[in-house]
Fold each of these.
Amino acid sequence: MNVYLGIDVGTSGTKVLAIAADGTILGSGVGEYPCYAPRPLWSEQNPDDWWNAVVTVVPQVLAKAGIKGTDVKGIGLSGQMHGSVFLDKNDQVVRPAILWNDQRTAKECGQIEEAVGGRAKLIELVANPAMSGFTAPKIVWLRNNEPENFDKVAKVLLPKDEIRRRLTGEYATEVSDASGTLLLDVAGRRWSAETLSALGLDESLLPTVYESEDVTGRLTQAAADALGLTTDCFVVGGAGDCAAGAVGNGIVRSGALSTSLGTSGVAFVHSDEVKYDPLGRVHTFCHAVRGKWHMMGVTLSAAGSLQWFRNALCAELWERAKSEHEDVYNLLSAEAAKTPAGADGLFFLPYLSGERTPHADPDARGCFVGLTLAHDRGRVVRSIMEGVTYSLREAIDIFRSLNVPVDEIRASGGGAKSPFWRQIQADVFGARVVTLNSEEGPAFGVALLATVGGGEYANIQEACDATISTVSELRPNPETQKYYDKAFPVYQQLYRSLKDDFKAISGLC
């Protein structure tokens, strides 16, 4: 039996998934590690922690599933995007990796846009505006603030690609993750020579770029020994976690869009052509599908908004749920389901961590608008669910305005476990919402990419068709959809009305 591994280098831990060629899950495991914040708004990790998780969990998964190392033919890699691993000429880590959620680079973002000739020019070159989470601002920050470390740097790798280097000895990445560096010509699927020149950076700092299903190397003897595998085992390009998760949801053709309601929320749509928003409100990246692209919008506090409400204001209900062996979210969802659409005029703006799409506003703040004495917990919960869904609709409406078709929504993440919240999505988006047999996320997506690299399937579309199927479907309720279409512009106006007040509030803190 041919076995393929998906390894997802996440922020809280690394997940290892083993699948058979037909997509059957054979085993999985997770190795956790810390995240460090040496200063406010900083976020760093030690790449050694990622590697230690890999060499610990892979053998555990193989042993638990009864898989022989000789059966593992290939590995796909996924991971947190945008992070910067700085290596010296001896492949030693120069300093802790700076992560996607690090916010130290606001000044550098402005410097980058100025260097290339403005925000519009940067979007033209790399399809995206400068944002503090991206990789290029981190490189410029290192040069500005730690010149002695910058002078040592010989290579800059993304988190999953540092694991690739330790597995294969190769400096390689792939187009989906490279798109999030702000240094890739997304239309041309290669490093942007003009952007690198404007920033005074040499392309030799960067790894070779592959397509996601391409074989990028084979295990070194040392890596094979550490993992209990063989040097015949290859590693494909893989994908950044968002693209990998989309592949795991079968978002590999035009018309398919996925929504993920985890701590943050993501709306991700496949595009056969490279299209970008001139205003930079949504991201345009290369997809993990050969020769294709995707567009993506992000709301920073999605299911995380409901988690905040549970933690801060539902202690009694949470204790009751524990005593009854019930999920507290099921109880909250049941209360919300008894309330009318629109929660009797209550709106929630889910900006508990600032906001990315479409506002890119770190000063934005979460708030309830329209509270009255008639509003109970069920209505408050419903307003949270509706507000998060409205925030994702803002991204979806941008996709549609660019003539990217959205025919079907594939829902995933913790929030998708609630049929009620899925129905709100169907009604707010005006589209069919389905769930799938696969819930393994990015690790499953890159394991499928490895099966393509191993010749089990002709392409990733064929692999998804063979392994992913629909298990439930919800369609919009016409009356409720009509109400949300009327209420959505009110939701949008609230941000515009409060934007200056958010900034003033931020200045008081």
Note: The chain has a mean pLDDT of 95.
Amino acid sequence: MSGIYIHFPFCKQACHYCDFHFSTSLHKKEAMLNALKKEIKLRKSEFKDEVVETIYFGGGTPSLLSMDELRFLLDEVYENYNIVPSPEITLEANPDDLSSIKINDLYKSPVNRLSIGIQSFFEEDLKLMNRAHNAEEASRCIKEAQDAGFENISIDLIYGIPGMSNERWIQNIEKTLAFQIPHISSYALTVEPRTALEKLIEKGRIAPVDDELAHQHFLSLVTILKENNFVHYELSNFGKPGFFSKNNTAYWLGKKYIGIGPSAHSYDGNHRGWNIANNPKYIKALSNNELPLEIETLSKKDRYNEYIMTGLRTIWGVSTERVVCDFGMLSKQHLLKQAEKYIKEGLLEIVTDKATEVLRTTRKGKFLCDGIASDLFLLNLEK
């Protein structure tokens, strides 16, 4: 099974922390839609032998799409790809875009999963991040989506926000639980280069991010959600059984996906591609029936390192049997040698899952898994 990701690169306003590719000017929206449609069609040969299980609208803010525009893109996907009978179709949405009319129209459409960018239920946090919605809209849109019939709802929450006490963070979690949301994606606020957040911190207008406080928030999140029967199936993702994101799970398990739109990435197991992160150049290329796509062939070392990075972020971990099969016995020996100190520190563990030996992060090691993974990487490996 494979997936299609469609990047809609427009937002109403720029969040202070965001470094994704987007524009706050919508005057090229129609031209962009035509370019997206063209790319969907031009790339169908890449998936001629694939069955698409997930379609994901990300951004940017794809909830700015009208229902006609959403159908315009979905129709093109269905016309050119082999789609399973009941695919997971996710729309990322901001609360201020989700009017009761929009929600009801979405429920009647093929979209069957909403990923809502709540980030926080508190006004002061939303203002600090320069979010377009307010606290009232955050709560309202969830209730109205549930009332309309949506069951598969995910919300985003951000922790580690300057000035957010652990008590207020716990209130955010409790508000989420009160809505009985089945999936939560939660990320630490990160200061990315060349963002408004970086500049505001440099000027002293916002306090620096406190890593220790973010770690405390993370531990509270993990503890409370486990007590409420959520499965911590990936570093930043928690789901009730049956509500894991199929789109994101496929990515972490190394399945194929095509990324449509400016800055979107693609992967087929041996190659990684990425589109140009420039709206006018993207539109111009597609108008000339050209794909604004760069492709790199992944070496064995690249594929090994990616498997370690993604595997350690998940409950499925890293299969030592797969490491031997795909990369050789020396790679397994390297992996286990590098992992020794982390196992002794209680950050990694080796378990047997369905008769297969698996290396995975412990609860204690989860927050540090990206750093741990980089220490397990191979520097050299025969092609």
Note: The mean pLDDT is 96.
